[in-house]
């Protein structure tokens, strides 16, 4: 097992943001934003994503779940729900301190709408920080 000194780990930096306008959730399942970790798979480098995300629901939702899709450091594809759908009006931020995902070098980290929002209105605010 190799251990790396702290200086060898690059600091997190903001990579992508939706900005103050956010993204209006829709009756569909689009990819919303993505970031590609530097390097190539198998190069031995560690990468991580810190995700800050919240949804402003202005009228109760049916559906509208937000997911993260990524490849873990061992090369396994993963999809994780980051914000549940079907929320009442209000601001939904399930992980107020952010969520950390270890990702494989050269892999794409994507935020997508996991299921359709068939009723209601909501806007996603999201930032991807990575190294």
CATH topology title: Jelly Rolls
Runs in which pLDDT lies below 50 for 5 or more consecutive residues are none
CATH class type: Mainly Beta
Number of strands: 10
The major pleated sheet works out as: 6 strands, antiparallel
The CATH architecture classification is Sandwich
Give the helix level as a range of percent: under 10%
| Helix/strand/pairing category | mainly beta
Number of helices: 0
Number of domains: 1
Mean pLDDT score: 92
Tell me, briefly, the overall form: elongated
- For this structure, the quaternary state is single chain
Strand content: over 45%
CA-based gyration radius: 16 Å
Strand/helix succession: EEEEEEEEEE
Distance N terminus to C terminus? Answer: 22 Å
Summarize the structure.
With 131 residues, this protein is mainly beta. Helix content is 0%, strand content 54%.
Secondary-structure topology with pairs:
Elements: E1 13-17, E2 23-24, E3 31-36, E4 47-63, E5 66-71, E6 77-83, E7 90-92, E8 99-103, E9 108-113, E10 117-130
Antiparallel strand pairs: 1-10, 2-10, 3-9, 4-7, 4-8, 4-10, 5-6, 5-9
How would you sum up this structure, described in words?
The protein is mostly beta strands and about 130 residues long. The protein has a single domain (about 35-130), classed as Jelly Rolls, CATH 2.60.120. The chain has no helices and 10 strands. It has strands at about 15, 25, 30-35, 45-65, 65-70, 75-85, 90, 100-105, 110-115, 115-130. The strands form 2 sheets. Strands 1, 2, 4, 7, 8 and 10 form a 6-stranded antiparallel sheet that branches. It has a 4-stranded antiparallel sheet with strand order 3-9-5-6, with no helix packed on it. The model has no long low-confidence stretch (mean pLDDT about 90).
